[in-house]
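Translate structure to sequence.
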């Protein structure tokens, strides 16, 4: 049985979605494992935009993803 290095993360272990949510000071980027909107859909009103990340982008930092996929312009207030 082959061993894998402990520093390697499975694609399933990494957040799958890049999400822009409404924050106190404007849009904030987040990474989510699933698109579960929670009980009563209370999160749905906070989500401005989301994108399912390709496997090769799931390891990128929030700042890199925010530069690649800027916040939606229609709700920058």
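Result:
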């Amino acid at each position: 049985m082959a061993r894998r290095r402990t520093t390697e993360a499975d694609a399933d272990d990494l957040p799958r979605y890049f999400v822009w949510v409404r924050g106190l000071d404007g849009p904030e980027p987040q990474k989510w494992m699933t698109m579960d909107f929670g009980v009563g859909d209370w999160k749905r009103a906070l989500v401005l935009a989301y994108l399912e990340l390709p496997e090769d982008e799931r390891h990128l930092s929030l700042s890199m993803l925010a530069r690649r996929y800027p916040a939606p312009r229609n709700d920058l207030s």
